[in-house]
Predict the 3D structure of the following.
Amino acid sequence: MTEVVNRLTSGDPWVEYRTRVDLLCQSEQEPAVAAARKRMLEHPQVKGLLNEVCGWREQIVNSHKNASLPMHKLAFIANLGLTVKDENIAEIVDLILEHKDAKGVPQVLMNIPVHFGGTGENTWAWAICDAPTILYSLVKFGAGDSQSVKNGINYLNSLIRDNGWPCAASPEVGKFRGPGRKEDPCPYANLIMLKLLSEVPELKNSKESHTGAETLLELWEKSREAHPYIFYTGTDFRKIKAPLIWYDIINVVETLSHFDWLRKDSRLLEMVTLVQSKADTGGLYTPESEYKAWKGWDFGQKKAPSLWLTFIILRMLKRMEE
């Protein structure tokens, strides 16, 4: 483990920074931590992401799985540890909050074709497969005390049913909904709602969190027969990859590991064991799938170990042991 951590602290500045803070528990005030963070903020790849997210109004959401969407880059930036105190972040937060509905749920620019039940026009709207990710990012940035953010979180939280969160969207999208039975839970909605609630202390151990977590664990347990909204917990699900964008084993395990009351659940431990089995002899992890939109990052390929993916997994394992 020491050798692997040494590799991580010699990697890209975001890998070094998060490794020092999350794995080595070093203070933000320590010189090595501060220096790594400074290099991260000055790095062209991080600056490039910030520039893209600043174009929040420009890109239309036509597929939530699209890895190039600003909301996915927003979440990645938030997970690096940037906050409203950093350059451009407060402006990005304000830009996002310019478009929210009366309930406080942030909206994105969508265009739902008429034959799918939409209007066929560019419309500011939200779906439960985008709003939780945006709210999660706002909370991570330090904007969670905003009343509109709190209202948005509480409203989405209230949509839960006995079997988890369903497919849901704002009235602006018309009759459109995902390809599944209305009574089914949406696996992706449950995943990103749990990710959001894991960052809200008063909701982290709520009844809703327990229900959503059980939904995901049951989907794993019944992976051969349960495929709500065409989300399969099969071969592709089991491939390790980064960043944490879609419904896959790393995203699910990383999210569920935040809930201490789950860490001895046999179903979660089964997923953790599967992830651990994918390490190479040096303790590093190589992506088994890739997002073309993230080419140029060390996890945007499948031929060599990724230090960022390795860090994510080691942090999850450390959390599971706590």
